[in-house]
Amino acid sequence: MPSAQLSERAAALVRELEPTAEALLERHLRTSKEWFPHEYVPYSRGRDDEPGHQWTPADSDLGGHEISDAVRSALFVNLLTEDNLPYYSRDIDQLFGRDGAWGEWVRRWTAEEERHSMVIYGYIATTRAIDLVALERGRMAQVSAGQVPAPDTPHEGIAYVAMQELATRISHRNTGRMLGDPAGYEVMMRVAADENLHHLFYRDLASAAFEIDPSGMVIGVEHVVRTFAMPGVGIPDFEKHAAAIARAGIYDLLIHHEQILVPVVLRHWGIDTLSGLTDEAERARDQLIARIEKSARVARRLAERREEPALA
To answer: Terminal CA-to-CA distance of the chain, rounded, Å?
Structure first.
């Protein structure tokens, strides 16, 4: 499709979706809860830094609990993803604009996401859950690079953030459960609750977009599912951390399939029941459904392999 036509299609979608965005923003403001990071951070566990001290896991004060390297990887990746917020705000602003309901939503979303970074960092810094030197070096590397997944169209953008916000919620919740520390659990559950509201905003925005331009949305969703990756581009050793997170069951392909692709893409958006699609969209839908079916098979095999050592 020529780029000029894409631009016209994108502008039309954004324009027609603005009343829905306004209604969803109002719903979000009614249902979101005011909270304060300082009420969640266990400051009594904090201590002054010793110059030249080399961090070890023994430095951590996690309420008497030990955590695995995989949980440390999850804390590292989850926080650095939140720290990369400026680039996500920039891209959403470029896709939807900074005026009216769109601008109000992006600014509100940005303020809430920044709060996530504050509270997770506060928890990590006071408990020394991970190496703060490595964390800061990772933050500098990632934010200096400024790399984030960048959807080309509003169709792709809406689909991506709907799935990504849900994936982030799942990762935060599972990390909190595996920490074993009540304070850390409350921090991660609080952040996850916000991420769930963000997901609902984008999920329902996508549902409205399907009513306006079903063919464009199917094509966009197919592209996002085919190329989806958790935020993390630019994080040092991201592949190693992601592999550890997957092996621990914090976020893996099976979770992605059972908690995102099936309930959101297939059931909520009803991809397989849409009618009146263009030929291009029909082909995209066939490819999308085939990909989801394949992901189910691959996810089950990976899960079975992960369980094999425990059965030996």
So the answer is: 54
